[in-house]
């Protein structure tokens, strides 16, 4: 079985969610009990290992898991990588138990590598901040949730803020609440508090006035998919922050492992952006409502009001100061620079 921390119940309670089959894990992914690009890759990989161990059809399981959410490329990467390890072992005629063991070993390797990547991204991200803004204590703005909850280690963008904090150089982490599902308010604020960071929560609409007041030194966000030209899909609301940052001459920094780079997707317009239920907009949802299929909250719009609810938006490379990966940072962001980082990566390539 696969035991997950149910993120829909945070911050009120820390509750484990036990998945004994693939459909349960697919539901957990779709209701955001497990979420965030790197973690989706890890969970997807363990999902394939679970299917193999329980004697389910691995090809069918991989298809279901990969299709659970469309935007974060890590999900497909984790699923395909672990399935490939399973097929390789079963192709050698080693038997079902050996193939299942190979799948589990690969999922564990992916988990471990993600933790290592997180540590290296934090180092590179901190070095980049020092280069861009030398000798300062920073006020950093972040969006959505990018900490240990979404990673094998301490996360992506949040791991950089955490490292800066540990060095006594974080003045404040500004945390966007991240409507409609409040990953910032529910999860990033929870992680910031647990780690003793100086932080303040703001509504997404309040970011503009913070920039205007000169209270943001840099923006740090994660990514769900980075196209070959350096376009970045991340939680909806990231693109307006990039526009604000450009106008106010504030560095806009994306922190993501190379497993989030998808060289097969040529540009931002080719990224499939997940559209979610309008109920998430027309109702104020509580975490428990989320686990009940994104509805059942306090209704705040006329009955039947149509809603626009993309889960992500796409920021073009010209608005991004730098992309930080476990292989280093690139600035300016170019397709060539991105391809070089990926070529340096020791991450397993899946055909
Ligand atoms: O819909 P979610 O909560 O899965 O979206 C997550 C994000 O957009 C994160 O910012 C992104 O995955 C980067 S996580 C390191």
From TrEMBL:
The active site is at residue 224. Transmembrane segments: none annotated. Belongs to the EIF-2B alpha/beta/delta subunits family. MtnA subfamily. PANTHER family: METHYLTHIORIBOSE-1-PHOSPHATE ISOMERASE (PTHR43475:SF1). Substrate binds at residues 35-37, 69, 183, 234-235. It comes from the Bacteria. GO terms for molecular function: isomerase activity. It catalyses: 5-(methylsulfanyl)-alpha-D-ribose 1-phosphate = 5-(methylsulfanyl)-D-ribulose 1-phosphate. This is Methylthioribose-1-phosphate isomerase. Keywords: Amino-acid biosynthesis, Isomerase, Methionine biosynthesis. The record marks 144 as: Transition state stabilizer. Coiled coil: none annotated. Pathway: Amino-acid biosynthesis; L-methionine biosynthesis via salvage pathway; L-methionine from S-methyl-5-thio-alpha-D-ribose 1-phosphate: step 1/6. Catalyzes the interconversion of methylthioribose-1-phosphate (MTR-1-P) into methylthioribulose-1-phosphate (MTRu-1-P). Its EC number is 5.3.1.23.
